[in-house]
Amino acid sequence: MNFAACIAVAVVAYLLGSIPTGYLVGRAKGIDLRAAGSGNVGATNALRILGKPAGIFVLAVDGLKGYAACAWACDAVLKLFGIAADEELYQIVAGVGAVLGHNFTCWLRFRGGKGVATSAGVYFALAPLAAGIALGTWAVVFAISRYVSVASIAAAIALPATVWLMPNRLTLRLVTTALALLVIWKHKSNIGRLLNGTEKRMGDKQPVPEVAK
Questions:
Q1: CB neighbours (10 Å) of residue 27?
Q2: What is the mean pLDDT of residues 87-100?
Q3: Looking at per-residue confidence, does 198 or 207 come out higher?
Q4: How many other CB atoms are found less than 10 A from the CB of residue 132?
Q5: How far is CA 31 from CA 115, 181, 200, 208, 213, in A?
Q6: Cα–Cα dist 86/148, whole Å
Q7: The pLDDT of residue 140
């Protein structure tokens, strides 16, 4: 692996992933998502606070960030170094960079989302069948529980389990496990609320947010 190319891919992917979609959409509506609802700038809080159209837009763009980092940005960087664009190890680096960029964006003092949508985008580029199974798991668990957090944690467990069961290289298996643990760790506040019985289901009323100053 070319070290300079690896660093370049990681930096470009991080910057792409770090675009704070939810925050920008919220500010366009005069609302700071960091001070509303759960305080998270991801798609779920955007959906609750900003409404369905805005929430779906944030979800789509956050997912696209992950996919674009692996499928397009990585290829563009590798072409500059004369490296074959289908090199999986570089795509894995790009995926990790995009998720870290989303979760710890430099534009918001390293406070970002939880990485579910961006991770989904990454794995639709790296391991689409595993991503599809994880998405199906999310949909089933959400339909039963109406908890986005529970569905997201279930999907985070299903993804590495599926990747390990398929003939993937060890690097992808280990990275997938690490990213899944990161997603679960980012849901620690949700897990606390679930244990306390205070976690809100999708559709529960939210307090009206204040307009950002």
A1: 13
A2: 95
A3: 198
A4: 14
A5: 21, 31, 21, 10, 8
A6: 34
A7: 98
pTM strictly above 0.85: yes
The 3 state secondary structure assigned to the chain is: CCHHHHHHHHHHHHHHHCCCHHHHHHHHCCECHHHCCCCCCCHHHHHHHHCHHHHHHHHHHHHHHHHHHHHHHHHHHHHHCCCCCCCHHHHHHHHHHHHHHHHCCHHHCCCCCCCHHHHHHHHHHHCHHHHHHHHHHHHHHHHHHCCHHHHHHHHHHHHHHHHHHCCCCHHHHHHHHHHHHHHHHHCHHHHHHHHHCCCCCCCCCCCCCCECC
Nearest CA-CA partner of 175 in 86, 75, 64, 96 = 96
Say whether pLDDT at 131 is over 60: yes
148 burial level (CB within 10 Å; 0-12, 13-18, 19+) = buried
Residues 185, 104 contacting (CB under 8 angstroms): no
7 vs 27: CA distance, rounded Å: 32
pLDDT (mean) for 148-155: 97
CB contact at 8 A, 127 and 158 = no
Whether residue 2 is predicted with pLDDT greater than 80 in this model: the reply is yes
